[in-house]
Amino acid sequence: PTDFKINQLSPDLPDPQAIDSNCDGIDGNRYKAVFVSTAGTAPATATDIDDPTADLKGALIVAAGRGYHVYVSEGDYNVSGLDLVNGVSLYGGFASGFLDRDITGAVYRTQLIQDEANPVLNVKNIKTPMTIAGFVFVNDSESFKGVLVNVADSVVMFENNDFAGVDTDTETLLLASKTNLKLVGNRFNGRAKYNSTGVALTDSDTILTNNLFIMGGAEHTRGIEADGGSLVVTNNTIDGGNHVTGSAYGAVFDNTVARFVNNIVITQSDHNQASLYCAGHENDTVEITNNLFMRYSSNGYTFAALIACNGSQTTTSAELDLIDTVSADDNLFSSSLAERDTILDTDNLYQLVAGSVAIDTARDADDENDGAVTFDIFGINRTPDAYDMGAYER
Predict the structure, then answer these.
(1) CA distance 299 to 269
(2) 165 closest CA partner among 199, 185, 137
(3) pTM for the full predicted model
(4) Tens digit of pLDDT for each residue in 301-313?
(5) What is the pLDDT of residue 374?
(6) Is residue 56 classed as helix, strand or coil in its secondary structure?
């Protein structure tokens, strides 16, 4: 019983690498979970791995009473009216029998679907930390009002989820305020026509690691937008957008204490574009270290890679170092359209190709201050002395 590797009652929360660390046959703890399946027939009060329930709402209530979490298998689940419960985490991406799990959604796809104008999830006043991992968030209402997932006054981690954009005028894939938020290994896919924002933060303390942002062709796009609070952004790949006449920014900081480390940021085509836009902050320093900034223009326009907090436009780390409120070191800059295909394999989710200048140039990903990034978006371990920029390990 003292050997956690064979004690089937020992802690084993589902993890991005889908490791069964307590030898009970699944990723997670089969004896401390309520199991949900679209094919389930059991009431939530009687559920176990061999006899799951289809009642996701009931499963949350039962799990709260038992001190358990909820494991959800592949399939589509209507979450209209779903109320999350303090301390009860949700884990998706399981196969129908729960013996296998896929964090990418390519094999086992667990979709939470909202058919009303409301967000897919409203995470409010969750004070006991919870995790939401392995889901695809979808709103298929014709009256969708633009916020896919809303978080307020909570402590929550989103891990390995797919925030699926909607073909609408305006969208914010994740909106958070006054929240302690951690985003790890998520995919943000923008599809709006005019305004698309991946993550919008207000007065929140946030860590973003290993996330992929593809903000699409909306006229105005923002990968990350933060107003107030603190922000650590490390090992993300951010495609800020590609409209021919609009504006695209990888990240916008406003009165935010930020550390921006080991990221790849891409903008292209838009008339107004910048990898980073610092709209202003107080006396604390913004750190910008070991990033690759790439800008591709159309119609002969050229743009600054970064617009700093003092209003200056910069294109090199040396220029960044001249700004009192910015600490910058070892950033790489590219603005040549001809270089694009030699740096990125855009048919493979922006994965770096062999020989790219960004390979093995990043800062130690195990640094706790950088989010302790030890594995990439697919759960692949980042190897010592071979840390990559962006959300992928090679």
Answers:
(1) 8
(2) 137
(3) 0.91
(4) 555 667 766 667 7
(5) 86
(6) helix
